[in-house]
Amino acid sequence: MRCVVANWKMNLTAAEAAAFCETLLERITPQSSMGQGVEVGIAPPFTMLGLVSSLVRTRGIEVFGQNGHAEPKGAFTGEVSMPQLRDAGCSGVLLGHSERRQFFGETDAALAKKVKAAWQWDLLPVLCIGETLEQRDAGRTLEVLGQQLSILAETGPGPLRVAYEPVWAIGTGRRAEAGQVEEAHAFIRAELQRHLAGTAYEVPILYGGSVTPDNFPELLAIPEVSGGLVGGASLDPVKFADLVAQAG
Ligand code: PEP
User: Fold this and answer.
1) Domains present along the chain, CATH in parentheses
2) N or C end of the chain: which has fewer CB within 10 A?
3) Nearest residue CA, atom 8 of ligand 1?
4) Catalytic residues
């Protein structure tokens, strides 16, 4: 199954989000790629989850949190729990985005708990993994990906998407080369098989990092690339609708 997920990060106001949804819905019809089995998701900031859910979910577009806490409630100022994401209309949640790992100290141990909490509340986790440029230059890419995926040995199988996002390709305009993507995705598939056995092939692996309508068709042609997690280009509804159409 192909998946295209928009990560708005800390961008857009409510009015801008509503305008985005209006344009997107004009361009995406059930007859277009969504009718071809493409899973489309939008991950807005927390403040706009309810609004975006109310605008797009009846049209088959899923809404994702950009993060979620492992505990269902309690004294965690500034955090949002998995049941609160569900309550706001989410069907999934991004977990372990490199900006969460880099700027907010998100660890693999915390992510294992978050993946399990997401499943407990019937949310689809999109587990983001990827190496820094320093790690790639040191020849450690596969080791890092293996470490980040090792949490699956603890969580066991469940509904999941994995997004391979080389940190150096996020928001830089420098997307990974086809050979680099192919190697990483093949390795991720093998690791999924090691940890999840029979269910490994049910896990689509998305690529993320400077995806645009100009480079997405080439990325989609790479073995084991099942779609994209898109930041910058997903802020433009016309470009995002083009990406969805390309995935169909
Ligand atoms: C992202 O935020 O996950 C991302 C891939 O960003 P961009 O598309 O801007 O590189």
Assistant:
1) 2-247 (3.20.20.70)
2) N
3) 231
4) 97, 165
